[in-house]
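hi support,

uploading two proteins for the ticket. first:
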Amino acid sequence: MEMINRPHRRSRSLATEAALKSAARRVFAAKGYFNTKITDITTEAGRSAGSFYTYFPNKEALLEALAADFLEDLEARQQCNAGRAAELSYDHLRAHVAQYWHSYREHLPEMVAIFQASMADQAFFARWRKLRDVEFDELREFTTILERHSAGDVDPGVMASAALSAVEFFCYIWQAAGGDPPGTRLTDDQAIDTLTTLLLHGMSGTPR
């Protein structure tokens, strides 16, 4: 009987952990990371307050688990992009921008919470930098390609930093902060096309 019950308990344990993570994402999105209490998360998850500590010692550990999940997703996406042709076209860059736009929205609560936590906690600052480095490395590949085809002496790493900063803040404004001006809406295609045109024109100095 004990052997039969173990898989059931394991399954229930995984379900509870997933419920807490999912609830945390919803509460972080609604209240912000710093304003969220553990009881907010357990109430949203429909679990007892004490059950939280079976899985996470504190709120920071839960956010760290969400960050690890997000990093795993980013690295898997990076692996899918590996081995692409060493060239840059509008469609090629657009596909990359679209992946980032959709990934940012999918993980929006974590993105905002990790950034908020990074301003007060060195461990989360390091985690935020790690997440950013994955995207930075991909954009640096694009800018290195462009360097071979354009005049000027702009460092590819600096160009990648500028490009990623523009993409990050654009995603934040339009996905988390209500648009610019507030209340304005963009379709996914409008957002992705705008970013792609801006990046390609800005990095290469030529329109598509």
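and the second one:
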Amino acid sequence: MTTDSREVPMPLQHPASKEHFIPVYSNFIIGGIAGCCAKTTIAPLDRAKINFQTSEMYFNVKALFRFLRESYKFHGFFSLWRGNSATLTRIFPYAAVQYSVHERAKSVLGIHEMDLSHMSLSSVRIRRFVAGCCAGTSSVATTYPLDLARARMAVTQRVKYANLVDVLRSVYREEGIRSLYRGFAPALLGSIPYSGVAFFTFETLKEWRLSRTGFLNPSV
């Protein structure tokens, strides 16, 4: 009787299985680029939204297109991206803090490993939600002044504020340092359920994807 001594090749492990070893700076770069692309794409709509929020204009689709058309006609094409530089400046630190804090929170809460079979399902879900909340509150707290500056640049004429630094300097000099965090409490309260649900959903669907296909990355 002849024994087949040929070695059976082992299946290659998908590189995504090492996802939790990705360094923070990689999340920073990838998240920053993605955030900048998304924000730049919708910048005209974001500027229109802020305009309707800070004026007495009644919003509808027709009024939206009228605002975009008149902005282009009287102020030029690039006026539709007024304040976008401040948005992009905020996105990079926001993403860096959000992703790094989220990964750290997962480690502290004991849910950074792929195999969580030793924990109850309810415990995993609660900790995922808490990790997301920590990420959201930290990123909002550290970048809120930049978001305030972005909003002001979007609704004011260029002659008033030259750039992001000028906005922060003017607000600090004329209104005090506390004004840089005006409206911070509602923003923080809103970020808690938003980030908690967002990261919880992502981690849960990622786990479901892994259990069904063996891939960690939902985009594969």
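thanks. also noticed: The chain has two domains: 24-79, 83-206.
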